[in-house]
Amino acid sequence: MAGNLGALLTEIVNRGASDLHLVHGSPPCIRHATAIQPLGQTNVDSSTILGLVTPFLMEHQLKEFQVNGRLNVSFTLSNVGRFRMNLCKAQGTISASIRAITSKMYPLSSLGLPNIVAQLTEKTRGIIFVTGATGSGKSTTMAAMIDHINRSGRPGKVITIEDPIEVLFKPEKCIFVQREVGTDVPTFELGIQDSLRQDPDILVVGEMRTADSMRGALTAAETGHLVITTLHTPDAAKTAQRVTSAMAQEDQEIIRDQLCNSLEAVISQELLPRSDGKGMVLSVEILLATPAVRRLIKEGKLEAIYDILQTGTAQGMISKDASIKALYQRKAITRETALAHMRNPELLGPGA
Question: 32, 205, 230, 268: which has the fewest Cβ within 10 Å?
Fold first, then answer.
């Protein structure tokens, strides 16, 4: 059974696909770029899926799945790569979604990120958000930033809190403590609390899901640590809104003050289909916490952040529309893709 899953995972890596999907009543499928493609014609059922994945689970993980009907884990397949898996029950059946995690670290510049992102890794305190939808490359960007610090930045201690752990870092200039939620620590919130007593220089929070985890991350940033974390928000202004609105009404002014004082940058990204059909290309929005941005956050005038993005190019900011327009002008994406994803499509101008 394990060999069969190993063969499927080897196949998706060899094809350059991102995900393997095992769904009751369907053949195994892969996601390649934006398309779902079947691997063969033989359907799998729930018992087959459970048999395929069980050899990759520890006993307590299997028990957790049986009790809760859901499980998030990561594992390494020798000579193939590292993977993260979500196992879930759906209407009495079992399905598994397994994502290939690249073990090769890429320079920040090779990801299509602007130079300002490398400059942000030189920060010694504050909070940097990497945001976007699921599958937009947030984890890859965050890992590349940490790898950049590890290889060429200042020596220090990095603590990561993830669910699950994706990239395993090898110490170079930095030392690492990597903790997995559910295995090493019960929750993100407790992991953040622990980290403040572990003398970190950099705290990496895989995802801020709750008001408590957001509050903890902001406190860590305020107390002299660099915090890098992700949120499922589509752009920079929505990120500030999400953090503020996650709090009770009576706490929102305090949180705006914390965010105003600790924010360094928001990196919002989206993967768009290439015009040649060969994969995806990155569009990115960069908001830097200038005095003007901090003032807008403090006053709760978050919609006005869009205006600052449009005029902040000289300071290193990039608006979503400017990024997409540049991709279109380089013919990396089609006009139709650009128009569908821009905030203000009229900025693209008349068609050729």
Answer: 32
